[in-house]
Amino acid sequence: MLDVDKVRKDFPILAVEAHPGVPLVYLDSAASSQKPTAVIEAMNAYYRTTNANVHRGIHRLSEDATNAYEGARQRIADFVNAPSAEQVIYTRNATEAFNLVAATWGRANLGPGDEILLTEMEHHANIVPWQMVAQQTGAMVRYIPFTEDGRLDLTDLDNLLTERTKLLSFTAVSNVFGTINPVNQLVRAAHAVGAVVMVDAAQAVPHMAVDVQAWDCDFMAFSGHKMCGPTGIGILYGKRELLEAMPPYMGGGDMIRRVTLEGSTWNDLPWKFEAGTPSIAEGIGLGAAVDYLSHLGMDDIHAHEQHITHYALESLSEIPGLKLWGPPASEKAGVATFTLEKVHPHDIAEILDKEGIAIRAGHHCAMPLHHKLGLSATARASFYLHTTTAEVDKLVASLDKVRQIFRL
Ligand code: PLP
């Protein structure tokens, strides 16, 4: 079991006041997580003792920087059980991973008559790059719908997933509903029709043990900043034969083997996809984040979030006029998305902010999802390894204040 009081001491920001005399209650980890001292110190130590460019210099600092940066890649690969570190490409974030696959694999493999299958609950990062490549190639984008309670509606899957489907890309965990989707079932169904599968694991890898080999997905994307790591670093995992067959994404230093005035040849994996000086400190920071999460144990982190989510949904459901969106706690990750009768979610977030509570209000980069619900925005409280039931109690009490202010 997670020792939450001890965990909280690992996050310096949790001791910072939101406003003078008002403690911070950070319930916005799904947007971006806070960073433990171990991550902050790993990046600090890199700049203090090891800073140099990687893969280039024949001097001690450069060798140390390269070892730290590549060592982090290996630990990140182990964290998601990737068969090798060469299949773990550093990107800026999950968004860049989707754009990379759409621009390289997509342009090389899609054409008129082909279909890309997504779901209606996707984050824009897993919609827009496919719409762009569909426009460029003549392929068509289709969507698996969701039910009113925020589950994927798979009743018509046989008609949506056909031999015309070249790619299925879907989120393992919805950033709005929190729904944990049936990854294995969807991967098997897509492979049965010969489609390639990309999984959006931006809300999964930070919160539960993920094993890419057990999922058997072809590509997977996630972001460092949602899993206790820094911004500016994300991961694209891919199956080796696909990555090897794909053309590079960006051209420049590091991604080449040989350049002549007539043309160039490409470096080996993973560097073929990593042009230019990379985010070195950020890669090292993400390595420290996976060490931190692994040390605590992903199963214990998940169990803690499940406990908090059950508690939160039960407490929130007692507030008159409050509607919770998404499936029951047992089917979702640490997210409580809600609306309050007659109050705009932005007003809720503003009033909660005065109480020191940070939540997110808006469309959460999922406009099609909100459009289908007939909403322009929702309010979302999201939980992580440091969230306590006392913080949930404060959220509930503050929502009562919102109701008083609006005389509900
Ligand atoms: N996918 C999901 C499910 C997300 O929640 C997010 C971020 O909110 C992303 C993708 C995009 O992540 P990033 O903005 O770090 O690229």
How many structurally independent domains?
2
Fraction of helical residues: 25-40%
CATH architecture of the largest domain: 3-Layer(aba) Sandwich
Would you count the extended β strands for me?
17
The number of helical segments is 14
Shape verdict: globular
User: Measured on Cα atoms, how large is the radius of gyration?
Assistant: 22 Å
Q: Bound small molecules, which ones?
A: pyridoxal-5'-phosphate
Mean pLDDT across every amino acid position: 98
CATH-defined topology of the largest domain: Aspartate Aminotransferase, domain 2
**Low-pLDDT runs:** none
Assigned CATH class of the largest domain = Alpha Beta
Fourth-tier CATH superfamily name of the largest domain: Type I PLP-dependent aspartate aminotransferase-like (Major domain)
Strand content range: 15-25%
Arrangement of strands in the largest sheet: 4-10-9-8-7-5-6
Structural class: alpha/beta
Describe the largest sheet: 7 strands, mixed
Question: How many angstroms separate the termini?
Answer: 40 Å
How do you describe this structure in short?
Helices cover 39% and strands 17% of the residues. By secondary structure, it is of the alpha/beta class. It binds pyridoxal-5'-phosphate.
Write the layout of secondary structure elements.
Blueprint: H1 4-9, E1 17-19, E2 22-23, E3 25-26, H2 37-50, H3 60-79, E4 88-91, H4 94-109, E5 115-119, H5 128-137, E6 140-144, H6 157-160, E7 165-171, H7 183-192, E8 196-200, H8 212-215, E9 219-223, E10 234-238, H9 240-245, E11 256-259, E12 264-266, H10 280-296, H11 298-316, E13 322-325, E14 335-340, H12 345-354, E15 357-358, E16 360-362, H13 367-373, E17 378-382, H14 389-405
Parallel strand pairs: 3-15, 5-6, 5-7, 7-8, 8-9
Antiparallel strand pairs: 1-2, 4-10, 9-10, 11-12, 13-14, 14-17, 16-17
Bound molecules: pyridoxal-5'-phosphate.
